[in-house]
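Justification of resources, computational component.

The compute hours requested in this renewal are based largely on the per-chain cost of generating structure records like the one below. Each record pairs the submitted sequence with a full structure-token output. That output is archived, and it is also reused by downstream analysis tasks.
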Amino acid sequence: MSNRRRPAWDNNYRSRYLHSPMWFARRDRWFIEERRRAGQVRCTLCLGVGTARTLELHHLDYRGVTQTPRGWAAHERHQDLTALHPRCHEYVHQLIDRDRALSGLVSRRTASAQAIGRLRARVGRYIETVDPE
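The structure output for this chain reads:
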């Protein structure tokens, strides 16, 4: 199993599920739960505060996503999703897509955590050079 993204035209999950009412309802519930849990929602990568309008959700595990004869079922656990700004989300996917170990040799959760950790280290170095205290 690969962690690489397939093109949307070749990926029923991306072309159908992420546009389904089931996903939007699950997404809304996640943001409500996260605000209750943490008080505010932050991007997992850059740690910037965001909202359901400014953040996307990244799947750390797809086991809760199933397709039934009547459509999609959205049973992702709260901890199987994480919030990212759209640009941060794209950076995570790009790193997973181009890194052989992340794309195929580890679980999606591990690949995502390692990609976010590497990118966060880069962001930290950038912030230190731009705004040294």
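The mean pLDDT is 85. Strands lie at 41-42, 49-50, 56-59, 65-68, 71-74, 81-84.
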